[in-house]
Amino acid sequence: MYCVIQKVTNKKPNQYGHYKELTVSSTSFGIAGQPLKTKYSYRYSDERFERPIKDAYKICIHKSYRENGKVKKKQWVICTMGYYDIVANTSWAGDYLLQKKLDAKLDQIGITETELWDMVYLKLDPIIEQVKKEFELTEEYKTKAKHDEIINKYLSDKQEFEKEYGSDTYDYCYDIYGTLRNKAYLEEVKFQKTVREEYQKRSYERNYQSNYNSYNFGGYSVSNGSNYTDDEKGMLKKIYREASKKFHPDVTKDDGTMMKFLTKLKEQWGI
Known about the structure:
Layout: E1 2-9, E2 22-29, E3 37-44, E4 55-67, E5 70-82, H1 83-87, H2 99-109, H3 113-135, H4 139-165, H5 170-173, H6 183-213, H7 230-247, H8 249-252, H9 257-269
Antiparallel strand pairs: 1-4, 2-3, 4-5
C-alpha cells in the first residue's frame, strides 16, 4: 500500500490573491455641542494579485493484492489540493474532504487516520516545500509579508500605548503606519494621564494623612501642609494654566464640570 500524488490542472484560476494595497481609513463622529472625533483604522484595496498557476495535486492511496494468482490494484482518491491551497500556512489535506467520507474511505482501505496521513505527508511534504519556495519569490508573497509586518507593528505599538494611556486611545492619535494624525488629542490624552496620576497620588496622601492623624503621638501636632516643593508647585501651575485654557466652559461649551474638577485639584495642590 502506498500513496501517489498526481499533478493535475484546475479549469479555473484561483481568484483570491492577496490585496495589493493597505490603506488608512477613518471614521468621524461626535456628540451634539462637541467637536468631531476621528478614529483611524485600515482597509485593503479592492485590487488583488492575479494567481495564474492552475496546478493541483490529486492524492490517492494505491493497494496491490493477489486474487486467483493475479495481481490486482485498488485505488482510493483522498482529496485534491490546489497550488494556492498549499501556500496557505493554515491549510492541510484533511480540510478538503468531510470527516464522514474520510471515515468511509479508511474503513474500505483498512487503515487508521494516522496511518493514512503518515503515508500522504511522506510524499506531500517535499511538494509543499517546493511550492512554498516558488511562491516566496512572487510579488504577492512579498507584499503580504510587508502588510503583515506593518499590522503586527501597529498592534504592538497600540498595545504599549494603551497600556500607558488607557484603552481606545491610540487610534484617535495615530494611523496604522504610526503617523501622528491628531497632535491636540495626543496632548489631551497625556494630560488626562497626568491628572489621573495626580488625583491618585493626592487620594493616597489624604488617606495616609487621615490614618496618620488618627494615632496619638504623645501630643505632637501633625502638619497638613502641602508636600510639594516650590519647583513642583511651579510645574503644577503650568499644568493648571494649560488645562484651564482647554477646558474653560467658554471653550468646551459644557456645564463646567471639568473646570470645577481642575479648580478642586488646584486647591489640593496648594497653588
